[in-house]
Design a protein that fits this description.
The protein is mainly beta. It has a domain of 55 residues: SH3 type barrels (Roll). The chain contains one helix and five strands, in the order E-E-E-E-H-E. The protein has a five-stranded antiparallel sheet with strand order 4-3-2-1-5. The protein is elongated and about 80 Å long. The termini are far apart.
């Protein structure tokens, strides 16, 4: 046994080859850990395989786009545009002071 880390759903880990993954499912009664690699690939590990690896707990990556490697920069939306709740429903004529 190389480590004593118990799989924790939602926790990110890095294995001995440097690959980043998250535990997405684990049940104490089931000897299988379901993981998702940063690129989106899913895998099931038997507990023997889990403990046979050299693992370290990691912080969640800031870049969430890993599983979406086919996204183009346009797919992220306009990151320069700041939207405020309800702005999309404002009519510019509503703010004019009309006097008859």
């Amino acid at each position: 046994m190389l480590h004593r880390l118990v799989p924790e759903v939602g926790q990110w880990y890095r294995n001995d080859s440097g690959t980043l993954f998250e535990v997405v499912a684990y049940d104490l009664g089931d000897p299988v850990v379901e993981i998702q690699y940063f690129d989106g690939t899913l895998e099931e590990l038997e507990m023997d395989a889990w403990y046979a690896q050299m693992l370290q707990a990691e912080a969640e990556p800031e870049d969430w786009s890993g599983p979406f490697d086919d996204l183009m920069s346009d797919d992220f939306g306009d990151t320069d545009l700041v939207r405020h709740g309800g702005d999309e429903w404002l009519n510019p004529l509503d703010v004019l002071d009309w006097e008859e």
